[in-house]
Amino acid sequence: LDVILNRLADTLEAQRELKSSFRSAMIYPAIVFVAMVIVLVIMIVFVVPRLAAMYASLNVELPTITKGMIAMSDFVSGYWYILLLLIGFAVVGFRIVSQSETGRDYITRLVFALPVFGRINRQKEITEFAGTLSLLVASAIPIVEALTIVSKVVQEPVFRRGILESAKYVERGNSLSEYMKSNKAFPPLLVSMASVGEETGQLDAALQRVADYFAGETARSVKGLSSALEPIILIILGGMVGLLIVSIITPIYKITNSIS
User: Fold this and answer.
1) Count of domains forming the chain
2) Radius of gyration of the chain (CA)
3) What is the DSSP string of the chain?
4) Per-residue pLDDT tens for 77-127?
5) The CATH number of the domain where 198 resides is what?
6) Interior CA angle at 224 toward 228 and 116, to 5°?
7) Most C-beta atoms within 10 A of its C-beta, which of 6, 19, 218, 252?
């Protein structure tokens, strides 16, 4: 019992650290994104209208980029309440959709379909699946019952459905690895290790190795994502600032040339 409790504590701690590292990696991009939005709103709502009034009084021909910026500012200033309503409807709609099982599955599929985030979430799912199943098997819980329990840990609909189908397959007297081979939701490494574990009678140890491997892969992916996002965000931020500067400076440059 002590061994099982220690493994349970280790598994829960590993899962907590995995989720914490993912959240930590997303904090910086989220802060920068919010800051970008705030700066953009301030520029569009307060700065651009004053510049537009100044340009209008000088009767200067504005470049296309400046006209576009002024048009955007006029739209936001004139129809801000519509934008707020749309945002409100989107938030309420998201909450309504996420409350139903079908809606949650659809949102989860969208998240898992994302290029980088989907792969990280998939690795995290496999880590939690293998680690939890290993713990249940080590606790002498029947494999069919263990699979049914662990399916509740998984969020991705296809993977969850595959786990439940594997439980039915095993209940009919077949091996778990045989079903895994027929379902692409289970990665090859997991299939191979499950097969070895069944043959050697050490399925729990084999699954724990899989969990440890994918936990490491997830941690590396999260770290790589964090490192990759920083320059991308800086480039986007620099592009936005540059666009604003060009749209503001170009008319002033034309006015200066016309005066001289």
Assistant:
1) 1
2) 27
3) -HHHHHHHHHHHHHHHHHHHHHHHHHHHHHHHHHHHHHHHHHIIIIIHHHHHHHHHHHT-PPPHHHHHHHHHHHHHHHSHHHHHHHHHHHHHHHHHHHHSHHHHHHHHHHHHHSTTHHHHHHHHHHHHHHHHHHHHHHTT--HHHHHHHHTTT---HHHHHHHHHHHHHHHTT--HHHHHHH-TTS-HHHHHHHHHHHHHT-HHHHHHHHHHHHHHHHHHHHHHHHHHHHHHHHHHHHHHHHHHHHHHHHHHHHHHHHH-
4) 888 888 889 999 999 988 888 788 788 778 878 877 877 788 888 888 898
5) 1.20.81.30
6) 80
7) 218
Amino acid 5: pLDDT: 63
pLDDT at 144: 92
pLDDT value of residue 259: 65
Contacts of 207 (CB under 8 A, 6+ apart): 130, 131, 133, 134, 137, 193, 194, 197
Domain span at residue 47 reads 2-259
pLDDT, residue 15, reads 67
What tokens appear for 63 in the block?
């470049």
Extract the residue ranges of the chain whose pLDDT is less than 70: 1-12, 14-15, 18, 25, 258-260
